[in-house]
Amino acid sequence: MTATTTDRRGAGSAADAPLVVVEHVDRTYGSGHAAVHALRDVSLTVAPGELVALVGRSGSGKTTLLNTIGGLDRPDGGRVVVAGREVSSLDEKGLVALRRDVVAFVFQTFGLVPVLTAAENVGVPLRMRRTPVAEREARVELLLDLVGLGPHARQRPGQLSGGQQQRVAIARALANSPRLLIADEPTGQLDSETGRAVMALIRAVVEAEGMTAIVSTHDPVMVALADRVVNLADGRLVDA
């Protein structure tokens, strides 16, 4: 069960097939008395173009759910389908293709390469796909402009603020035009003002790029910007 905020998707979106389907997913770490039930019979769907805020206390299962949807972890039971691919049954090659072509991640830690400029960091996924140079450079320029960092293209991470580094990380996540953006506490290392700006940016890029996004957060700003709020407690979906 979920709580719903204002729906920003517009009329007709309900008729679209879900981009994300989670059905009766369980995930347990350890065994016996030491077992931790991270997810318990979790089921939900996410529509194309929807921005979902995933909320709950630390240890409620948010990160496990995001990792399961994105193919970084496997459920013990149930299944996960993203863009028609059953993630929970993909082999390693299929998971690599999923993360290359369909899903992108943004984490608390920015994960930028210190010796590369902002533009070079954003271009890494495009280099890995062997995108032609002219196309790659145009995409990088577009994305840096989208996140408001065009003038900082030649600066390295150490020359940027935390908020700017997270913007570069978001631009990099968008490089391959993913259908699903998964963000795990993306403002966890930022001050409140910078965090609000990053949250508003995520809302804007979801709309500009036509993506679906699932964002775990404690930030009330993100909750207010979301189309829907999903609440987790002790690994279960609950009412707000």
Helices and strands in order:
Layout: E1 3-4, E2 20-29, E3 36-46, E4 51-55, H1 62-69, E5 77-82, E6 85-86, H2 92-101, E7 103-106, H3 118-128, H4 133-146, H5 162-173, E8 180-184, H6 192-209, E9 212-216, H7 220-225, E10 228-233, E11 236-238
Parallel strand pairs: 4-9, 4-10, 7-8, 8-9
Antiparallel strand pairs: 1-10, 2-3, 2-5, 5-6, 10-11
Account of the 3D structure:
The chain has about 240 residues and is an alpha/beta fold. It has a single domain, classed as P-loop containing nucleotide triphosphate hydrolases (Rossmann fold, 3-Layer(aba) Sandwich). The chain has helices spanning about 60-70, 90-100, 120-130, 135-145, 160-175, 190-210, 220-225, and strands spanning about 5, 20-30, 35-45, 50-55, 75-80, 85, 105, 180-185, 210-215, 230-235, 235-240. The strands form two sheets. Strands 1, 4, 7, 8, 9, 10 and 11 form a seven-stranded mixed beta sheet that branches. Helix 3 packs parallel to helix 5 (about 160-175). The termini are close together. Residues about 1-15 have low confidence and may be disordered.
